[in-house]
Amino acid sequence: MKAGVVGAGLMGAEIALVFALAGHEVVLHDRSDDALAGAIDRLRGILEKGVAWQFYASETAGTALARIEPVTTLAAMADCQMVTEAVHESIDIKAALLGALDEICQPTCILASNTSTLTISTLAGFLTPKRRACFLGTHYFSPVSRMKLVEVIPCFSTDAAVVNEVTDLLAEIGKQPIRIKDVAGFAVNRMLHALLIEAVKLVEEGVATPADLDAACRLGLGHPIGPFAMMDIVTSDLCLQVQEILYDAYGERFRPPALLKQRVAAGYTGGREKPGWLAKSRE
């Protein structure tokens, strides 16, 4: 199968990688050659460290990058059997992209969204009625090369055969798919952000420090990473964006904490370039 991925950021590039590691030809799209070159360099680093080899055969990993074709034109998706969008979590950006892919891709091509919060049926509204039967959500988790879970979310119109086909494909590329009802935030993000919100409130109230709460989650709950280290990696501004979507959908229980909003407004978002909860930067 030839797969397409639109968006060569941290998520999209690694989605392309796991398809390539499983032996599939992949077309990876982004708007600039520089973005694509950076993505390929990151993937090369993952392979050189052997991170993905615990899940995939090393001889396959060694040739995986050769199976990924970087492109800057969406027209290259025309002969793909499945295309996954992994662009910025903006309904306007995703709507424009899905409309373009609807016109470019074959009628039988499966379109999937890696959105983490937007409902799939809402996004399906930007596709023609015939295309909606072949559209669903596949929500991967970061880092995709190591995290096995994928939430599979059908929309109102998704054909059951398409759901089964994608579920089987995800298992074949080394993932553990679980089927989730199409609701805002799906399942995992609702559980995760309930934890993140309470963790920030504990800091607001002076109950414990971010570092101590991270230690408590690792050593007391068996979590591989604490909530504040996680927010520093995925960025607090993205967490705030997700919580605002959940708050709109579910009300008071997902109201973003004042401290989180204050830190984001002040630029304390974490990520590679900005200070976070635990460190000045993550370069």
Mean pLDDT, to the nearest integer, reads: 94
Helix percent band: 40-55%
Shape: globular
CATH architectural arrangement of the largest domain: 3-Layer(aba) Sandwich
Order of SSEs: EHEHHEEHEHEEHEHHHHH
Biggest sheet character: 8 strands, mixed
What is the beta-strand fraction? 5-15%
CATH class of the largest domain: Alpha Beta
**Alpha-carbon distance between the two ends:** 36 Å
How many discrete structural domains?
A: 2
Q: How many E strands?
A: 8
Structural class by SSE content: alpha/beta
Low-confidence stretches: none
CATH-defined topology of the largest domain: Rossmann fold
Q: CATH homologous superfamily name of the largest domain?
A: NAD(P)-binding Rossmann-like Domain
Instruction: List the total number of helices.
Output: 11
Q: Order of strands across the widest beta sheet? A: 3-2-1-4-5-6-7-8
Radius of gyration, in Å, reads 19 Å
Topology:
Layout: E1 2-6, H1 10-21, E2 25-29, H2 33-48, H3 58-61, E3 68-71, E4 82-85, H4 91-104, E5 110-113, H5 120-124, E6 135-140, E7 149-154, H6 160-172, E8 176-179, H7 188-204, H8 210-220, H9 227-234, H10 236-250, H11 258-265
Parallel strand pairs: 1-2, 1-4, 2-3, 4-5, 5-6, 7-8
Antiparallel strand pairs: 6-7
